[in-house]
Amino acid sequence: MRCPFCSNEETQVKDSRPTEDGTAIRRRRYCPDCSGRFTTFERVQLRELMVLKRSGRRVPFDRDKLMRSIQVALRKRPVDPERVERMVSGIVRRLESLGENEIKSETIGKLVMEALKMLDDVAYVRFASVYKNFREAKDFEELLGELSGDDREGRGEGD
After folding, report:
1. What is the pLDDT of residues 17-31, one digit of tens each?
2. CB 117, CB 128: distance < 8 Å
3. Rounded Cα distance, 158 and 155, in Å
4. Number of domains in the chain
């Protein structure tokens, strides 16, 4: 594994252990050249997924891009990073289990929205505002109305 600090190709694994959800191996690494320390994750990839964008372009699925977009929605929210990792792993497993090599970006967006709605309402609204391309305040009002409706159906305090 190449060192991200000095590009040395001879790094050493100091510690390996499975992640909490068991879907990856977390490796702590050390670079003998620059003394840098960093972490890598090793995951099983069941199939090579392609994303079909709204524009018609096809791009390789990028788990890190999915994680970054979710982290942007969760910025400054009190959510445990391990829960976010489990959520992303769950979304990726669902995508892989669809049995398709090509997945519409809308499908990914819907899965993320479902997961964020269960995890954090503020992050859900943030992600939805970008995903659904909100243009006016009434777009937010409608989404918040849906959330309020969910609360009346059993998602309220203490659930």
Report:
1. 887 767 778 899 999
2. no
3. 8
4. 2
